[in-house]
Design a protein that fits this description.
Layout (H helix, E strand, L loop, with lengths): L1 H22 L10 E2 L3 E2 L4 H8 L4 E6 L5 E12 L5 E10 L2 E10 L5 H12 L4 E2 L2 H4 L3 H4 L10 E5 L4 E7 L5 E8 L3 H4 L2
Length: 190
Amino acid sequence: MKKLIAVLTVLCLLCASFAALAEAPATEVQPEFTFGNGIKFGMSMAEVTAIAGTPNETDNDDTKGLVTFSELEYKQVPDPMLDNTPVDTSFLFVNDKLVAIRFDLDTKSVAYEKVQAALAEATKSEGTMLDMALLGNAIYAVDDDGTPELNSLNYVDPIFNVVVVLELDKEGDDVDITILDMNAEYLTGK
């Protein structure tokens, strides 16, 4: 009888342990946004250079805000999202961590509407008028004085916690796309 009670006690303890494990919340892993050949937010300049190659220019971009960006600039890089249209691509870093990617192209190369459609498809969202409050200090990655074009749109991708800002200059010649990591330390303080 003692053996039966001991076995039942062990079984009850095991059942209680499994029930507790089943009820424990699973830790959610935030999926990572990956660009091009494996470039991810949070990488160092050396890691991005190892993947993207030697940049055409490097620069420190002082803003009128509280942020200084280090920048790797690549000229005329084919963009697969835009049928390999050559675009100027910049990677922006704060404290040697990738926090934003910016593309600059002209409407002679690709129509603004085509860029809009590609972004809507990629983010699975429609662009809305730029929400400056949503961006906080990330606005300086879009424009170094914090004043993007008036007709700018943003696309929010909650899966990767990124915001994509689309700007068309007032002349209608230049299109800028900036992908912002909203998990970046300079924004979250973490």
